[in-house]
Each structure stands twice: as structure tokens, then as C-alpha cells.
Amino acid sequence: MRRAINTDVPGAARDLGAGGAATGRHSGIRWLVLVAVAASVGLPQHASAQAERAQRGLTFARVNCARCHSIDKVSPSPLAVAPPFRTLHQRYPVETLEEALAEGIVTGHPTMPEFRLEPDQIGNFIAFLKTLEP
To answer: What is the pTM of this model?
Structure first.
């Protein structure tokens, strides 16, 4: 088996198999690096899209919920019986609210209006709630 200088990594060598194809751990490392780079290319776009959804969810919460619920990480709720949104994940996974938000939330305190959200609003609102989790 021949050895060749790996021009991708200074001072590294690689084994060349039949026909000059790279084999061994350096070609495996290069493959892993390429896969990691390719996978990370989509991450900023996904993170940006998720941040936009969360921002739209926050806007919905400000307009429709903030009169009673705390919608941040520190403030008490203006209405004592309304739980701060930052504590919802302690009661149940916030994703489980999707069905209730679509069908209309009915709660134990009579002052809360019933909301029925559209699917995109639900996704936005859940994305916002997730930002309040530690």
C-alpha cells in the first residue's frame, strides 16, 4: 500500500488503496468533517425560522394573553390565578397544548376567554413558550 501526503491536513499522510483511492482514518475524518459542514449549513436557517416563529408567538401572547399571564421569565402574572407562561412546561410538555389550542382552551378560572388558534398560530405560540423553558 502506498502512502501519500494529505494536502487537506498539513503533515498528515493517508493510505492509498488500489487505484489510488484514499483509505484509513484520515479519509474517514475528512468524510465526517464534510458531513458535519453540510449538516450545519441548514442550522442557521432553521434557527432563524424558529426565532421568527417564536417572535410571532410572543406578539400573539402580548396582544391576547399579557393582560392576565406573565409572558416573560421573571414577572408575576397580573392576574393571580393565571399561571406565568414560564411555568407551563413544569406542568406538562407545552407541545401537548396543540390540540387544546386548536379546539379551544377551557380553564378552571372563568375570566379566561376561549381561544381557538389556526395551525400556524399554534406553532408560533408553542415556539414562543419553548423560549421560556430553561
So the answer is: 0.64
